[in-house]
Amino acid sequence: MLPSQLRSTHLLLAYCFLSTFFSFRFIYLAKQSSLASHRDVFDGVGGNAALTPPGFPQRIWQTSKTGPADMEDGDRKAIQSWTKLNQKHRYEIITHHSGESYVRDKFRHRPVIQVVFQDLQDPMLRADVIQYLILLEDGGIYTDIDTKCLRSIEDWVPSIYNREANFVLGIEYDSFGNGRWLDWTLDLQLATWTILAKPGHWALEIAVEQAIRCLRRLARQQETTISEIKTGYREVLDTTGPAMFTEAVFRRLVFRNGFELYLAQYQWTYLTTVDLRRLNLTY
User: Fold this and answer.
1) How far apart are CA 194 and CA 192, in angstroms?
2) Which positions of the chain have pLDDT values less than 70?
3) Which SS3 state, helix, strand or coil, does residue 65 take?
4) How many Å apart are CA 32 and CA 261, to the nearest integer?
5) What percentage of the chain reaches a pLDDT higher than 90?
6) Distance (Å, rounded) from C-alpha 29 to C-alpha 249?
7) How far apart are CA 150 and CA 14, in angstroms?
8) Which strand (E) or helix (H) includes residue 26?
9) What is the reported pTM?
């Protein structure tokens, strides 16, 4: 359990405790902002956003190396918590091999993604990348296999925000300006172990592209190929994990229509101890 200084503050959703006992402070990123000014970065922008119904897709996604066959009893019970409380939602587990077929089918128009994912063999890095790809293409909720749902997903977003909000995530770690934990690279880190999204959101586009850049960079640093990358905790955190994701999202938030805003507005201090008045980010 995290220490007391990481306690949650008052938010639109007071608390959502998962089995890992992180305090989940929700942030709503409203508006599917256009990526037109960043076309040079992306090899193709997903087209699902314009076709998305007002609400979030009723889909629950999880990943597992081999699927239910070899799953521990604790993970089975955790899965049941999601399906029991969210019976209107379609549930699917993506495995190491089914992830390959998913990317092959869904991203055939994006060869860079196909090649990188096919080459990527590290199970931790691959699991991170597939969750971004799933949410980018199909939306819904991704949650780690060992998390437990204690509240229906339909209750996560108040009805007054359901049409406006397109991306919901929590703050995993907040130093509150008191110094970072050992081995953590940021003062504030967004959570990636549970994300609710509508398809085609820019944050997921950014995450996918940045993960590919980081994977290529790590391969160069190790003087090897993406398929032979060796990782420890820090490499996963910074290459495809929440540190990479947090930096990528914050970097995008300082741009609007191609012009840089005041950078300080979206530094980590903008979200630390976030309260109701500062919850809605509208880019």
Assistant:
1) 5
2) 1-54, 175-177, 180-184, 254-283
3) coil
4) 18
5) 48
6) 10
7) 13
8) strand 25-30
9) 0.79
